[in-house]
Amino acid sequence: MLSFQETDNQIMIAQTIKDFGAKEMRPYIMEWDEAQIFPIELFRKMGELGLMGIMVPEKYNGSGFGYLEYITALTEISKIDGSIGLSMAAHNSLCTNHILLFGTDEQKEHYLPKLATGEWIGAWGLTEPNTGSDSANMRSTAVPDGDHYVLNGSKNFITHGKSGHVAVVIARTGELGDSKGMSAFVVERGTAGFSSGKKENKLGMRASETAELIFNDCRIHKSQMLGSVGDGFVQAMKVLEGGRISIASLGLGIAIGAYEAALQYSKERHQFNQPISKFQGIAFKLADMATKIEAAKLLTLRAGDLKNKGFDVRKESAMAKLYASEIAVEVATEGVQIFGGYGYTKDFPAEKYFRDSKLCTIGEGTSEIQKLVISRAILR
Fold first, then answer.
1. Structural domain tally of the chain?
2. Does one domain contain both 155 and 218?
């Protein structure tokens, strides 16, 4: 049964990140945001703390923790900066986790130690310009040629599309529209025919790099395939179960950060000779924010607990992702309102939480897709 008491590991992780964030993140948040700097050296430091391979077994230089510790870590990072949380999530739950779940022993031994320590940054390529949620109709192809596959096509909205050292890429090896016609490959940076394209200029999450992956007659050895031919789509859907728990944690962290900033400000800001927190209009906003955060936290931890125990969590992870991402936007919006005019300036944190929050309702499946997943689960 899920315990509502944090474990010693969770407490330790939260305090470690709080100390780390105060020194290595908070002084630079707006500099990274304004210039869209992806602080790759920060992620190497996070690797030294074990944050880049939280669920990777210790034999591969990972931390060997489960989803509850991962949720704690990602939430705490995202309270400080959602951009860093997003990149941490993509690295851990998409690229690294895909290799951990479906790689051979040789593939795991080669890639996981580098990814888990932050020596290498991972990317994951599913989305294409014309196929977002409709991934079964992807146009990128991998055509067999002797002992190799020749990969052609592009992927967009890829976290670490330029700076990633290795990418797990899903490409079509069968007929268009066939869910068993796609396969997954590990492609290393520097492979001939593999390049990066446009870096996106984004509303929020600006320190998390988002760019195109381009493949032009890129030859990859058949040993770079993850699993068997035709397994790619099924693998991707399994990976996204964990990914949705990641985005739920990301949204939860952003919501908590926005709420705590607004709560503190409401106690310090005086109008009519009293703190604005004394006014019922503000106090009730804070009450709603706090309640929704607790509900999102419980949904996310429940999904993580069930995932740890090996249950099918398609419904639970979708519920957690849907609710946490939506309340992240709600809480961040109310945070700006509580800050008033100051909330609309970059001198205060409210506007950045507001900008960062919206991605949570889009990335790794929109809110509408989560409702589709949930409805299918409850109607079958």
1. 3
2. yes
Q: Tell me the residue length of the chain.
A: 380
For the question of residue 364 being annotated catalytic, the response is yes
Single residue among 121, 146, 171 that ends a domain in this structure: 121
User: What integer pLDDT is reported at residue 149 of this predicted model?
Assistant: 98
Catalytic annotation, pick one of 69, 76, 326, 364? 364
| Domain-located, residue 3 | no
Same domain, 248 and 372: yes
CA dist 219 → 94, 175, 222, 232, 280 (Å): 23, 20, 9, 18, 64
Residues of the chain with pLDDT under 70: 1
One domain, residues 257 and 355: yes
- CA 121-357-334 angle, to 5 degrees, is 155
Indicate the residue type of 2: L
Q: In this structure, what CATH number is given to the domain that contains residue 180?
A: 2.40.110.10
Q: pLDDT tens digit string along 41-67?
A: 999 999 999 999 999 999 999 999 999
Task: Kindly list the distances between the CA atom of residue 189 and the CA atoms of 33, 57, 122, 165, 166, in Å, as whole numbers in the listed order.
Answer: 26, 25, 10, 5, 6
Average pLDDT of the chain, as a whole number = 97
What are the tens digits of pLDDT across the range 134-152?
888 899 999 999 999 999 9
SS (H, E, C) 54-113: CCCCHHHCCCCCCHHHHHHHHHHHHHHCHHHHHHHHHHHHHHHHHHHHHCCHHHHHHHHH
Whether 228 and 249 map to the same domain: the answer is no
Tokens of 342: 């100051």
Nearest to 250 by CA among 79, 31, 134: 79
Range of the domain at 209: 123-232
DSSP state of 163: T
**CATH number, residue 23:** 1.10.540.10
| 52 assigned to some structural domain | yes
CB 286 within 8 A of CB 267: no
